[in-house]
């Protein structure tokens, strides 16, 4: 029997999945230990190994990890002093940003403080022209002085971002090599390695984020690898990336900026896996955990990919208020609507929920760990949607008295009783998630109406039917082990690396020899990285794409080409696919305007892991194990409670009903019914 292990560390819970070669799963959830993430990691691992009755040496398959370590470091500013080296005259690049105001009419607009202060930004005499010509190379004397200045500053990491280095990285590489010899205990990265793309500020921001995270991520991943080896695990860990692939710990440690959205990306890939199994081409994944809720559009059983996202936003869900990161990532919308989201009364006396979260420490008031504020989880408990004595199968009992007190205080501020306040929280958070999903889909030219909603995460199945109702979804699908599905998603994703390089040119003026050189370099880099992860070159699939736009436009449209353009060498093929994608987004094509290619993209992908689900045992239809009062839809409504494991394939349940399992609960409102399909999914539809 072969065993594989997956661990996803989230803001509130750490999820663990142990899979055997027959398809059997052992799962667990434990509170995230923010003071030392590996403490919660191995506590959960020991729990699932105990359930399966095995030791570490039996886990001879992959060990895959998704983590928030980089995100935490950025938000909490826990990194070590970091320096930035730029072309002389560009030392204010991080402060000037791109002069974009995300709110034109706010005179007190705020942006996050740059990760690198002006005092730790150093200019160096050098210049590369836009066509890649080296007009001025840095001198050895200047580099030596720079190294001395950096050493005197106390910086422990250095990002190098020179003007036009995406076109020619020679100057960056020369300075990085010299600094590595002079400062052998300092972490160094170049923008040409991390994000070789046009737009100086975004590239500098990405390189800075990467350098800032390196002193944290590399020791963390080394500690993880060393402890796994010490405890007898056969293989080194694979690390989940934001783009939806996994790579070796060494590659991930050099590029921690690629790990920022690793957990949410894994959840989206699990949704794609089930889309294949269920034969559904289009759906919307809905992941609601303890801290946030995430939605992702799945088109043709594949998630949408974006080349730009933000971290450390001043206004968490306002685009433009954070630090831009230009690395490939699964395109997600995230809102502050998790189980730990705190409810409060604003200055106008209105009830608001989030984006602040109680996290795992102290957590919601009902956790009994010192939290005093009412949260979404507290509201769910007061409404009767979850059972205080059956949370995590009874391993973690909830404090109903503390919860009631928190909702009473909130209700008094609103002139409501505790149940009314809890119902308000439930409805507000549901509407907020539906509104964000609508906006996300509309901005991408996707009609969300009628899309099935694929619900998972610890709180997702509780709220999914309410969100689906507002989105006019045809159905809600709750898969088995839905609470730990992001961890499961890391086991069904291939080894993969997304690479980019800007090379601005008119499509009708393409130099195919240059195209061969650029794409060949990216392909070689991808093959090397996947080889380090144990993937043979013969098993690697190469996909080619590009960011394209009409001449004069500021923003591009990303295309993944149906075939490698090097085969046909026909610009008309590129043009046709771009125009089709542009028309989908904007409904019109300015056909008289020339098209230019801005950035090449290469995806190096290994084979999909083989996964056979375990067949469900044939059992008799399970009856309700009890009834309890639920106040979510009507006061004191008596609602049937079912045990999910006791439900038979093909069994149908009419709402209102509650379906419980150890790690989560599914709520069926009145007017909804659910059927258990052959895979064990709960498929809910509205009458």
UniProtKB/TrEMBL annotation:
Which residue ranges does the record assign to the Hydantoinase A/oxoprolinase domain? 203-496
Question: What is a single cellular component term in the Gene Ontology annotation?
Answer: cytosol
Annotated ranges, domain Hydantoinase/oxoprolinase N-terminal: 5-181
Q: Which Pfam families match?
A: Hydant_A_C, Hydant_A_N, Hydantoinase_A
A single GO molecular-function term is: 5-oxoprolinase (ATP-hydrolyzing) activity
The biological processes this protein is annotated with in GO are: glutathione metabolic process
Q: What is this protein called?
A: Hydantoinase A
């Amino acid at each position: 029997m072969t065993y594989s292990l997956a661990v996803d560390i989230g803001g509130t819970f750490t999820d663990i999945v142990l899979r055997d070669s027959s398809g059997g799963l052992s799962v667990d959830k434990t509170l995230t230990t923010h003071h030392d993430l590996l403490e919660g990691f191995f506590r959960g691992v020991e729990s699932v190994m105990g359930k399966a009755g095995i030791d570490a040496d039996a886990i001879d398959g992959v060990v895959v990890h998704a983590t928030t370590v980089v995100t935490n470091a950025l938000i909490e500013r826990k990194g070590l002093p970091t320096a930035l080296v730029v072309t002389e005259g560009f030392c204010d690049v991080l402060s000037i940003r791109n002069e974009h105001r995300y709110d034109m009419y706010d005179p007190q607009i705020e942006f996050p403080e740059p990760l690198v202060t002006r005092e730790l930004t150093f200019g160096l005499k050098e210049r590369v022209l836009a066509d890649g010509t080296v007009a001025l190379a840095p001198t050895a004397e200047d580099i030596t002085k720079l190294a001395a200045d950096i050493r005197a500053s106390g910086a422990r990491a250095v990002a190098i971002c020179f003007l036009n280095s995406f076109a020619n990285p020679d100057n960056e590489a020369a300075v990085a090599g010299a600094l590595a010899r002079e400062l052998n205990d300092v972490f160094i990265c170049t923008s040409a390695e991390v994000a070789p793309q046009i737009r100086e500020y975004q590239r500098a921001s990405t390189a800075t984020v990467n350098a800032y995270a390196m002193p944290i991520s590399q020791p963390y991943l080394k500690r993880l690898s060393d402890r796994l080896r010490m405890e007898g695990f056969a293989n080194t860990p694979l690390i989940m990336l934001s783009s939806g692939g996994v790579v070796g710990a060494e590659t991930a440690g050099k590029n921690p900026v690629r790990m920022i959205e690793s957990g949410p990306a894994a959840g989206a890939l699990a949704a794609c896996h089930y889309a294949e199994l269920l034969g559904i081409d289009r759906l919307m994944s809905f992941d609601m955990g303890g801290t946030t809720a995430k939605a992702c559009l799945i088109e043709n059983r594949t998630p949408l990919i974006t080349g730009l996202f933000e971290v450390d936003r001043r206004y968490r869900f306002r685009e433009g208020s954070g630090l831009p990161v230009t690395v490939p990532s699964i395109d997600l919308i995230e809102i502050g609507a998790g189980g730990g989201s705190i409810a409060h009364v604003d200055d106008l006396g209105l009830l608001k929920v989030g984006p602040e979260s109680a996290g795992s420490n102290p957590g919601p008031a009902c956790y009994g760990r010192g939290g005093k504020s009412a949260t979404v989880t507290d509201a769910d408990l007061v409404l009767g949607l979850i059972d205080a004595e059956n949370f995590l199968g009874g391993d973690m009992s909830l404090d109903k008295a503390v919860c009631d007190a928190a909702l009473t205080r909130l209700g008094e501020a609103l002139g409501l009783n505790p149940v009314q306040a809890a119902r308000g929280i439930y409805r507000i958070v549901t509407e907020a998630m539906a509104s964000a999903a609508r906006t996300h889909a509309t901005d991408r030219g996707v009609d969300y109406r009628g899309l099935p909603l694929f619900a998972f995460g610890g709180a997702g199945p509780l709220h999914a039917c309410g969100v689906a109702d507002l989105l006019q979804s045809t159905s809600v699908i709750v898969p088995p082990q839905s609470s730990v599905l992001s961890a499961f998603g890391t086991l069904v994703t291939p080894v993969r690396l997304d690479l980019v390089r800007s090379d601005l040119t008119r499509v009708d003026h393409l130099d195919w020899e240059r195209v061969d050189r650029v794409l060949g370099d990216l392909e070689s880099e991808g093959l090397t990285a996947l080889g380090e992860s144990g993937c043979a070159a013969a098993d690697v699939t190469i996909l080619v794409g590009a960011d394209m736009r009409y001449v004069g436009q500021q923003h591009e449209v990303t295309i993944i080409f149906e075939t490698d353009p090097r085969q046909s060498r026909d610009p008309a093929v590129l043009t046709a696919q771009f125009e089709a994608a542009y028309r989908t987004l904007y409904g019109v094509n300015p056909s008289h305007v020339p098209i230019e290619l801005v950035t090449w993209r290469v995806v190096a992908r290994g084979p999909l892991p083989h996964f056979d689900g375990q067949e469900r045992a044939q059992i008799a239809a399970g009856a309700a194990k009890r009834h309890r009062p639920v106040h979510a839809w009507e006061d004191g409504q008596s609602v049937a409670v079912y045990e999910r494991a006791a439900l038979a394939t093909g069994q149908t349940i009419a709402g209102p009903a509650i379906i419980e399992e150890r790690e989560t609960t599914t709520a069926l409102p009145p007017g909804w019914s659910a059927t258990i399909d052959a895979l064990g999914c709960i498929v809910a539809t509205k009458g």
